[in-house]
Amino acid sequence: MTAPPGLVVEVRQEVPLLPKVAFALISLASLLGALFTGLHLGLAPGALAWRWLLLWLSALALGFAAWRALYLREERDLEGAEAFLEEERGVWRKRAWGLGVALVLSAPLALSLSYLGPLKGLLSLTTLTLGGALALGWPRMALGLAGGVFVLWAWADTSGLLAFALRLLHFLAFGLWLGGALFNLTVNVPVGMRHPQVPAVVAGARQLERFRFVVRLALPTVLLTGLLMASAYRVPLEAFRLFPFSLIGLKLLLLVALVVIFLTCPLYRQCSPVKGVCRLEDLKVKPLHRLDNRGTPCALGLIRATEVMEALPSGVVLELLSKDVYAPYEVRAWAGKYGYRILKQEQRGIFPFRYYRFLVEKP
Known about the structure:
The chain has helices at 17-40, 45-71, 82-106, 119-135, 139-157, 161-193, 198-231, 246-264, 298-311, 327-338; strands at 288-292, 317-322, 341-348, 355-361.
Protein backbone atom coordinates (compact mmCIF):
# COMPACT_ATOMS: atom_id res chain seq x y z
CA MET A 1 0.00 0.00 0.00
CA THR A 2 1.41 3.41 -0.96
CA ALA A 3 0.12 6.85 -0.06
CA PRO A 4 -1.18 9.19 -2.73
CA PRO A 5 0.82 12.40 -3.16
CA GLY A 6 -0.13 15.26 -0.88
CA LEU A 7 -1.58 13.14 1.92
CA VAL A 8 -1.08 14.75 5.33
CA VAL A 9 -1.11 12.60 8.46
CA GLU A 10 -1.49 14.49 11.74
CA VAL A 11 0.46 12.83 14.54
CA ARG A 12 -0.09 13.43 18.24
CA GLN A 13 2.77 14.88 20.25
CA GLU A 14 2.29 12.76 23.39
CA VAL A 15 0.78 9.47 24.49
CA PRO A 16 -2.96 10.02 25.21
CA LEU A 17 -4.04 10.14 28.86
CA LEU A 18 -6.81 7.52 28.95
CA PRO A 19 -4.58 4.52 28.15
CA LYS A 20 -2.30 5.59 31.01
CA VAL A 21 -5.30 5.80 33.34
CA ALA A 22 -6.49 2.37 32.19
CA PHE A 23 -3.06 0.84 32.83
CA ALA A 24 -2.99 2.32 36.35
CA LEU A 25 -6.52 1.05 37.08
CA ILE A 26 -5.69 -2.46 35.86
CA SER A 27 -2.62 -2.53 38.09
CA LEU A 28 -4.57 -1.23 41.09
CA ALA A 29 -7.35 -3.77 40.54
CA SER A 30 -4.75 -6.54 40.48
CA LEU A 31 -3.26 -5.23 43.72
CA LEU A 32 -6.65 -5.32 45.47
CA GLY A 33 -7.29 -8.85 44.23
CA ALA A 34 -3.85 -10.03 45.32
CA LEU A 35 -4.34 -8.46 48.76
CA PHE A 36 -7.66 -10.20 49.28
CA THR A 37 -6.41 -13.60 48.16
CA GLY A 38 -3.18 -13.20 50.11
CA LEU A 39 -5.03 -12.29 53.31
CA HIS A 40 -7.29 -15.30 52.79
CA LEU A 41 -4.15 -17.43 52.51
CA GLY A 42 -2.80 -15.96 55.75
CA LEU A 43 0.19 -14.08 54.31
CA ALA A 44 2.07 -11.39 56.23
CA PRO A 45 2.26 -7.82 54.83
CA GLY A 46 5.71 -8.34 53.29
CA ALA A 47 4.67 -11.58 51.64
CA LEU A 48 1.51 -9.88 50.30
CA ALA A 49 3.64 -7.27 48.53
CA TRP A 50 6.02 -9.88 47.11
CA ARG A 51 3.18 -12.06 45.87
CA TRP A 52 1.53 -9.17 44.07
CA LEU A 53 4.85 -8.01 42.55
CA LEU A 54 5.54 -11.46 41.14
CA LEU A 55 2.02 -11.76 39.74
CA TRP A 56 2.12 -8.27 38.26
CA LEU A 57 5.51 -8.74 36.59
CA SER A 58 4.48 -12.15 35.25
CA ALA A 59 1.29 -10.65 33.82
CA LEU A 60 3.29 -7.91 32.11
CA ALA A 61 5.59 -10.56 30.68
CA LEU A 62 2.68 -12.63 29.37
CA GLY A 63 0.99 -9.83 27.45
CA PHE A 64 4.24 -8.18 26.37
CA ALA A 65 5.54 -11.45 24.91
CA ALA A 66 2.15 -12.22 23.33
CA TRP A 67 2.17 -8.93 21.43
CA ARG A 68 5.60 -9.55 19.95
CA ALA A 69 4.87 -13.21 19.19
CA LEU A 70 1.31 -12.88 17.89
CA TYR A 71 0.32 -9.31 17.00
CA LEU A 72 3.51 -7.77 15.56
CA ARG A 73 3.62 -9.34 12.11
CA GLU A 74 5.52 -8.66 8.92
CA GLU A 75 2.56 -7.04 7.10
CA ARG A 76 4.13 -8.00 3.77
CA ASP A 77 1.41 -6.25 1.76
CA LEU A 78 2.36 -2.84 3.17
CA GLU A 79 5.19 -1.32 1.21
CA GLY A 80 6.85 1.38 3.30
CA ALA A 81 6.03 0.03 6.79
CA GLU A 82 9.34 -1.81 7.21
CA ALA A 83 11.08 0.97 9.16
CA PHE A 84 8.14 1.28 11.57
CA LEU A 85 8.00 -2.48 12.23
CA GLU A 86 11.76 -2.75 12.63
CA GLU A 87 11.83 0.08 15.17
CA GLU A 88 8.97 -1.58 17.07
CA ARG A 89 11.01 -4.77 17.33
CA GLY A 90 14.04 -2.84 18.54
CA VAL A 91 12.08 -0.93 21.19
CA TRP A 92 10.37 -4.17 22.24
CA ARG A 93 13.78 -5.78 22.84
CA LYS A 94 14.88 -2.88 25.05
CA ARG A 95 11.67 -2.91 27.11
CA ALA A 96 11.69 -6.73 27.30
CA TRP A 97 15.26 -6.65 28.61
CA GLY A 98 14.26 -4.34 31.46
CA LEU A 99 11.22 -6.44 32.29
CA GLY A 100 13.30 -9.61 32.14
CA VAL A 101 15.88 -8.25 34.56
CA ALA A 102 13.09 -7.26 36.98
CA LEU A 103 11.70 -10.80 36.82
CA VAL A 104 15.12 -12.37 37.36
CA LEU A 105 15.76 -10.20 40.43
CA SER A 106 12.32 -10.82 41.93
CA ALA A 107 11.95 -14.54 41.10
CA PRO A 108 13.68 -15.72 44.34
CA LEU A 109 10.95 -13.98 46.36
CA ALA A 110 8.70 -16.97 45.60
CA LEU A 111 10.95 -19.04 47.87
CA SER A 112 9.78 -16.99 50.86
CA LEU A 113 6.07 -17.74 50.27
CA SER A 114 5.62 -20.76 52.50
CA TYR A 115 2.04 -21.45 51.42
CA LEU A 116 3.32 -22.48 47.97
CA GLY A 117 4.79 -25.61 49.53
CA PRO A 118 6.79 -27.82 47.15
CA LEU A 119 5.77 -25.61 44.19
CA LYS A 120 7.74 -22.60 45.38
CA GLY A 121 11.06 -23.87 44.04
CA LEU A 122 9.56 -24.77 40.66
CA LEU A 123 7.72 -21.45 40.48
CA SER A 124 10.87 -19.51 41.33
CA LEU A 125 12.89 -21.39 38.70
CA THR A 126 10.21 -20.95 36.02
CA THR A 127 9.92 -17.22 36.75
CA LEU A 128 13.71 -16.90 36.62
CA THR A 129 13.78 -18.64 33.23
CA LEU A 130 10.93 -16.41 32.02
CA GLY A 131 12.99 -13.34 32.90
CA GLY A 132 15.97 -14.76 31.03
CA ALA A 133 13.88 -15.47 27.91
CA LEU A 134 12.62 -11.87 27.88
CA ALA A 135 16.08 -10.44 28.46
CA LEU A 136 17.39 -12.47 25.52
CA GLY A 137 14.50 -11.32 23.30
CA TRP A 138 12.81 -14.70 22.83
CA PRO A 139 9.08 -13.81 22.77
CA ARG A 140 7.61 -17.24 21.95
CA MET A 141 9.59 -18.95 24.69
CA ALA A 142 8.68 -16.15 27.12
CA LEU A 143 5.00 -16.50 26.21
CA GLY A 144 5.01 -20.22 26.98
CA LEU A 145 6.93 -19.76 30.23
CA ALA A 146 4.58 -16.98 31.37
CA GLY A 147 1.64 -19.31 30.80
CA GLY A 148 3.46 -21.97 32.83
CA VAL A 149 4.06 -19.51 35.67
CA PHE A 150 0.35 -18.80 35.90
CA VAL A 151 -0.52 -22.50 35.82
CA LEU A 152 1.70 -22.92 38.89
CA TRP A 153 0.18 -19.88 40.63
CA ALA A 154 -3.37 -21.05 39.94
CA TRP A 155 -2.56 -24.54 41.16
CA ALA A 156 -0.99 -23.25 44.40
CA ASP A 157 -3.82 -20.79 45.12
CA THR A 158 -6.75 -23.19 44.75
CA SER A 159 -8.07 -26.62 45.55
CA GLY A 160 -10.31 -28.41 43.09
CA LEU A 161 -10.38 -28.47 39.32
CA LEU A 162 -13.13 -25.83 38.87
CA ALA A 163 -11.43 -23.34 41.17
CA PHE A 164 -8.12 -23.95 39.39
CA ALA A 165 -9.67 -23.38 35.95
CA LEU A 166 -11.35 -20.14 37.07
CA ARG A 167 -8.16 -18.81 38.65
CA LEU A 168 -6.07 -19.72 35.59
CA LEU A 169 -8.50 -18.05 33.18
CA HIS A 170 -8.55 -14.98 35.41
CA PHE A 171 -4.75 -14.78 35.45
CA LEU A 172 -4.32 -15.35 31.71
CA ALA A 173 -6.97 -12.79 30.72
CA PHE A 174 -5.50 -10.24 33.12
CA GLY A 175 -1.97 -10.82 31.82
CA LEU A 176 -2.86 -10.57 28.14
CA TRP A 177 -4.67 -7.32 28.86
CA LEU A 178 -2.05 -5.74 31.15
CA GLY A 179 1.00 -6.63 29.09
CA GLY A 180 -0.72 -5.57 25.89
CA ALA A 181 -1.49 -2.21 27.46
CA LEU A 182 2.18 -1.86 28.38
CA PHE A 183 3.16 -2.52 24.75
CA ASN A 184 0.73 0.14 23.52
CA LEU A 185 2.03 2.75 25.96
CA THR A 186 5.75 2.10 25.56
CA VAL A 187 6.15 0.71 22.03
CA ASN A 188 3.26 0.95 19.56
CA VAL A 189 2.06 4.50 20.18
CA PRO A 190 5.47 6.20 20.70
CA VAL A 191 6.97 4.48 17.65
CA GLY A 192 3.85 5.27 15.61
CA MET A 193 4.32 8.95 16.40
CA ARG A 194 7.71 8.83 14.74
CA HIS A 195 6.36 7.24 11.57
CA PRO A 196 3.50 9.39 10.23
CA GLN A 197 3.27 7.49 6.95
CA VAL A 198 0.13 5.76 5.74
CA PRO A 199 1.65 2.22 5.58
CA ALA A 200 2.96 2.59 9.14
CA VAL A 201 -0.43 3.87 10.31
CA VAL A 202 -2.16 0.88 8.73
CA ALA A 203 0.36 -1.57 10.24
CA GLY A 204 -0.08 -0.07 13.70
CA ALA A 205 -3.85 -0.06 13.32
CA ARG A 206 -3.84 -3.75 12.43
CA GLN A 207 -1.83 -4.52 15.56
CA LEU A 208 -4.23 -2.52 17.69
CA GLU A 209 -7.19 -4.30 16.12
CA ARG A 210 -5.71 -7.65 17.19
CA PHE A 211 -5.18 -6.28 20.69
CA ARG A 212 -8.76 -4.93 20.83
CA PHE A 213 -10.04 -8.38 19.92
CA VAL A 214 -8.10 -9.84 22.85
CA VAL A 215 -9.40 -7.15 25.21
CA ARG A 216 -12.98 -7.80 24.10
CA LEU A 217 -12.47 -11.38 25.31
CA ALA A 218 -10.26 -10.56 28.32
CA LEU A 219 -12.50 -7.89 29.84
CA PRO A 220 -15.63 -10.04 30.28
CA THR A 221 -13.44 -13.01 31.26
CA VAL A 222 -11.82 -11.07 34.10
CA LEU A 223 -15.22 -9.80 35.26
CA LEU A 224 -17.00 -13.15 35.04
CA THR A 225 -14.24 -15.24 36.62
CA GLY A 226 -13.83 -12.63 39.35
CA LEU A 227 -17.53 -12.76 40.20
CA LEU A 228 -17.54 -16.56 40.19
CA MET A 229 -14.51 -16.70 42.48
CA ALA A 230 -16.10 -14.16 44.82
CA SER A 231 -19.34 -16.18 44.93
CA ALA A 232 -17.38 -19.11 46.39
CA TYR A 233 -17.14 -17.22 49.69
CA ARG A 234 -20.36 -18.17 51.47
CA VAL A 235 -20.83 -14.97 53.44
CA PRO A 236 -23.80 -12.56 53.81
CA LEU A 237 -23.91 -9.59 51.47
CA GLU A 238 -23.38 -7.30 54.45
CA ALA A 239 -19.92 -8.79 54.90
CA PHE A 240 -18.77 -7.27 51.60
CA ARG A 241 -18.94 -3.86 53.28
CA LEU A 242 -16.25 -4.92 55.76
CA PHE A 243 -12.53 -5.44 55.25
CA PRO A 244 -11.15 -7.57 53.58
CA PHE A 245 -14.33 -8.44 51.62
CA SER A 246 -14.72 -4.77 50.70
CA LEU A 247 -11.63 -5.23 48.51
CA ILE A 248 -13.75 -7.35 46.16
CA GLY A 249 -16.26 -4.54 45.72
CA LEU A 250 -13.52 -2.00 45.11
CA LYS A 251 -11.91 -4.25 42.51
CA LEU A 252 -15.25 -4.69 40.71
CA LEU A 253 -15.74 -0.91 40.67
CA LEU A 254 -12.32 -0.48 39.08
CA LEU A 255 -13.18 -3.08 36.45
CA VAL A 256 -16.43 -1.25 35.68
CA ALA A 257 -14.41 1.95 35.28
CA LEU A 258 -12.17 0.10 32.84
CA VAL A 259 -15.21 -0.98 30.85
CA VAL A 260 -16.25 2.68 30.60
CA ILE A 261 -12.76 3.70 29.47
CA PHE A 262 -12.63 0.93 26.89
CA LEU A 263 -16.02 1.93 25.47
CA THR A 264 -15.02 5.61 25.48
CA CYS A 265 -11.51 5.17 24.19
CA PRO A 266 -10.62 1.65 23.06
CA LEU A 267 -7.52 3.07 21.37
CA TYR A 268 -9.80 4.38 18.64
CA ARG A 269 -10.06 8.08 17.80
CA GLN A 270 -9.05 9.74 21.08
CA CYS A 271 -6.19 7.38 21.79
CA SER A 272 -4.68 6.71 18.40
CA PRO A 273 -1.17 8.04 17.74
CA VAL A 274 -2.66 9.57 14.60
CA LYS A 275 -5.47 12.04 15.19
CA GLY A 276 -8.85 10.68 14.17
CA VAL A 277 -7.48 7.37 12.88
CA CYS A 278 -7.03 3.98 14.37
CA ARG A 279 -9.61 1.65 12.92
CA LEU A 280 -8.68 0.95 9.33
CA GLU A 281 -12.10 2.01 8.10
CA ASP A 282 -11.46 5.44 9.66
CA LEU A 283 -8.41 5.96 7.47
CA LYS A 284 -9.71 8.01 4.57
CA VAL A 285 -6.79 7.94 2.17
CA LYS A 286 -7.40 11.07 0.12
CA PRO A 287 -4.99 13.64 -1.29
CA LEU A 288 -5.04 16.78 0.84
CA HIS A 289 -4.45 20.25 -0.64
CA ARG A 290 -3.80 23.16 1.75
CA LEU A 291 -4.97 26.75 1.29
CA ASP A 292 -3.86 29.18 4.02
CA ASN A 293 -6.21 32.17 4.10
CA ARG A 294 -5.24 33.35 7.58
CA GLY A 295 -3.87 36.61 6.20
CA THR A 296 -6.70 37.08 3.69
CA PRO A 297 -10.16 38.64 4.27
CA CYS A 298 -12.87 35.99 4.19
CA ALA A 299 -14.58 37.22 1.00
CA LEU A 300 -11.32 37.28 -0.94
CA GLY A 301 -10.33 34.01 0.70
CA LEU A 302 -13.46 32.29 -0.60
CA ILE A 303 -12.74 33.55 -4.11
CA ARG A 304 -9.28 31.97 -3.84
CA ALA A 305 -10.83 28.77 -2.45
CA THR A 306 -13.27 28.60 -5.38
CA GLU A 307 -10.43 28.92 -7.88
CA VAL A 308 -8.41 26.21 -6.11
CA MET A 309 -11.36 23.81 -5.88
CA GLU A 310 -12.19 24.24 -9.56
CA ALA A 311 -8.66 23.17 -10.44
CA LEU A 312 -8.69 20.11 -8.17
CA PRO A 313 -9.90 16.68 -9.32
CA SER A 314 -12.88 14.97 -7.74
CA GLY A 315 -12.23 13.25 -4.41
CA VAL A 316 -9.55 15.67 -3.24
CA VAL A 317 -9.89 17.30 0.19
CA LEU A 318 -9.05 20.98 0.60
CA GLU A 319 -7.60 22.02 3.97
CA LEU A 320 -8.78 25.61 4.37
CA LEU A 321 -7.35 27.85 7.12
CA SER A 322 -8.95 31.18 8.07
CA LYS A 323 -8.80 33.70 10.94
CA ASP A 324 -12.06 35.44 9.98
CA VAL A 325 -14.58 35.31 12.83
CA TYR A 326 -17.41 34.77 10.33
CA ALA A 327 -15.64 31.85 8.63
CA PRO A 328 -17.82 29.12 10.24
CA TYR A 329 -20.92 30.64 8.64
CA GLU A 330 -19.48 31.84 5.32
CA VAL A 331 -17.50 28.67 4.56
CA ARG A 332 -20.59 26.53 5.18
CA ALA A 333 -22.68 28.75 2.92
CA TRP A 334 -19.96 28.65 0.24
CA ALA A 335 -19.66 24.85 0.44
CA GLY A 336 -23.43 24.46 0.20
CA LYS A 337 -23.61 26.73 -2.84
CA TYR A 338 -21.06 24.68 -4.82
CA GLY A 339 -22.00 21.25 -3.49
CA TYR A 340 -18.82 20.66 -1.52
CA ARG A 341 -18.86 18.52 1.61
CA ILE A 342 -17.34 19.76 4.89
CA LEU A 343 -15.65 16.78 6.50
CA LYS A 344 -14.32 18.60 9.53
CA GLN A 345 -14.44 22.00 11.21
CA GLU A 346 -12.32 22.94 14.23
CA GLN A 347 -10.79 25.89 16.00
CA ARG A 348 -7.07 25.91 16.74
CA GLY A 349 -4.53 28.02 18.55
CA ILE A 350 -4.96 30.45 21.44
CA PHE A 351 -5.99 34.10 21.39
CA PRO A 352 -4.84 36.22 19.55
CA PHE A 353 -3.51 33.51 17.22
CA ARG A 354 -6.74 31.48 17.07
CA TYR A 355 -7.91 30.36 13.65
CA TYR A 356 -10.39 27.98 11.98
CA ARG A 357 -9.52 24.84 10.05
CA PHE A 358 -11.90 23.22 7.55
CA LEU A 359 -11.56 20.03 5.54
CA VAL A 360 -13.72 20.38 2.42
CA GLU A 361 -14.16 17.51 -0.03
CA LYS A 362 -14.83 18.00 -3.69
CA PRO A 363 -17.36 15.33 -4.82
